[in-house]
């Protein structure tokens, strides 16, 4: 197991480098850099002024060099102006060039500065990721138990009326995108025009003081979509287990149906859904982009939209790094957990 984890960590590191370089290269294309120069400088800048602005701030260097500087494995850029002043990547406000560090990238904890929010990227991501973590926690609390109950009830008696009803509900929730279900829930339960204003307050207020009235609708919107997928997987796994030979033997021995389900079938039926549940974490990062924007909940997904829409390169890169790490870590946990849940699986 230890060797397996080490190999996976190596693959994860290589994958992270490749994906972050692709994102870095795309965000540093010339049109994006020209747009950045004009938004931070002057929209009426000439081509020569744009080129000069990019050169004095280190953006005109080769992509691989800039990527190394951003990682912190290549010394940061430095520009000596004709008037004697010095600009450098690692030069902070109020510090001298003599005391400035040579390396200042991700590895040194320097994530850059957001041109939109005017704050350090690491501080912004820390706050916004915490808000999204709170949202994801309650989504998992609502989604996972509900989906498992639906799947187990449907799979216990395959082909029954209960199975068909619950399967229809699961398919319907999965087939409805978040932006559709979110609009419907807002129009029916939170809009005064319809007359069912059961949920008062906005998701924006939930950032400071989350309660049932202002936080349930965004949680439900995300949970509904993933709930159907987990329920369908659980139902298929449960139906397969219920037809296994050892279940038939237990029935012939006179074991009660409740004991068969709880003591024999349920544990084996939950092995496959466990992998699906763990893979919901990367999906939730994508789902919150839509829901947080729809409900104006300023979390990680909302930050990603703002960074992409306003060409905030440093913030967009920071968000991408966090997204890649979350996806890879959850996949690793999923593989390790699957091995422990299923003793028949061996790691070689």
TrEMBL record:
<protein>
    <submittedName>
        <fullName>Peptide/nickel transport system permease protein</fullName>
    </submittedName>
</protein>
<feature type="transmembrane region" description="Helical">
    <location>
        <begin position="270"/>
        <end position="295"/>
    </location>
</feature>
<dbReference type="InterPro" id="IPR035906">
    <property type="entry name" value="MetI-like_sf"/>
</dbReference>
<keyword id="KW-0813">Transport</keyword>
<dbReference type="Pfam" id="PF00528">
    <property type="entry name" value="BPD_transp_1"/>
</dbReference>
<dbReference type="InterPro" id="IPR000515">
    <property type="entry name" value="MetI-like"/>
</dbReference>
<feature type="transmembrane region" description="Helical">
    <location>
        <begin position="177"/>
        <end position="199"/>
    </location>
</feature>
<feature type="domain" description="ABC transmembrane type-1">
    <location>
        <begin position="129"/>
        <end position="334"/>
    </location>
</feature>
<dbReference type="GO" id="GO:0005886">
    <property type="term" value="C:plasma membrane"/>
</dbReference>
<feature type="transmembrane region" description="Helical">
    <location>
        <begin position="315"/>
        <end position="341"/>
    </location>
</feature>
<keyword id="KW-1003">Cell membrane</keyword>
<feature type="transmembrane region" description="Helical">
    <location>
        <begin position="135"/>
        <end position="156"/>
    </location>
</feature>
<keyword id="KW-0812">Transmembrane</keyword>
<keyword id="KW-0472">Membrane</keyword>
<dbReference type="GO" id="GO:0055085">
    <property type="term" value="P:transmembrane transport"/>
</dbReference>
<feature type="transmembrane region" description="Helical">
    <location>
        <begin position="211"/>
        <end position="231"/>
    </location>
</feature>
<feature type="transmembrane region" description="Helical">
    <location>
        <begin position="9"/>
        <end position="27"/>
    </location>
</feature>
<comment type="similarity">
    <text>Belongs to the binding-protein-dependent transport system permease family.</text>
</comment>
<keyword id="KW-1133">Transmembrane helix</keyword>
């Amino acid at each position: 197991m230890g060797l397996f984890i080490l190999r996976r960590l190596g693959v994860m590191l290589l994958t992270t480098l490749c994906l972050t370089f692709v994102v870095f290269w795309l965000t540093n294309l010339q049109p994006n850099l020209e747009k950045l120069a004009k938004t931070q400088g002057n929209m009426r800048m000439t081509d020569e002024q744009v080129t000069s602005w990019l050169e004095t701030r280190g953006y005109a260097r080769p992509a691989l060099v800039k990527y190394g500087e951003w990682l912190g494995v290549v010394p940061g850029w430095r520009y000596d102006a004709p008037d004697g002043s010095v600009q450098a990547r690692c030069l902070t406000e109020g510090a001298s060039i003599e005391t400035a560090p040579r390396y200042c990238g991700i590895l040194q904890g320097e994530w850059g500065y957001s041109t939109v929010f005017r704050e350090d990227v690491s501080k912004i991501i820390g706050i916004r990721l915490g808000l999204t973590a709170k949202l994801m926690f309650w989504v998992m609390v609502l989604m996972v138990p509900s989906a498992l109950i639906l799947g187990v009830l449907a799979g216990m008696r395959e082909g029954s009326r209960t199975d068909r009803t619950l399967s229809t509900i699961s398919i319907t929730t999965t087939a409805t995108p978040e932006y559709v279900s979110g609009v419907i829930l807002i129009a029916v339960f939170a809009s005064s025009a319809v007359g069912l204003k059961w949920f008062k307050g906005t998701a924006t207020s939930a950032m400071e003081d989350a309660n049932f009235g202002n936080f349930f609708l965004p949680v439900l919107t995300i949970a509904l979509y993933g709930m159907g997928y987990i329920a369908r997987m659980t139902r298929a796994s449960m139906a397969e287990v219920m037809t296994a030979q050892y279940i038939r033997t237990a029935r012939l021995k006179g074991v009660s149906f409740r004991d068969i389900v709880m003591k024999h079938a349920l544990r084996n039926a939950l092995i496959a859904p466990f992998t699906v549940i763990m893979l919901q974490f990367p999906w939730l990062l994508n789902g919150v982009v839509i829901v947080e924007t729809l409900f104006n909940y300023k979390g990680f997904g909302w930050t990603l939209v703002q960074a992409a829409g306003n060409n905030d390169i440093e913030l967009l890169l920071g968000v991408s790094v966090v997204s890649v790490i979350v996806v890879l870590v959850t996949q690793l946990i999923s593989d390790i957990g699957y091995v422990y849940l299923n003793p028949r699986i061996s790691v070689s």
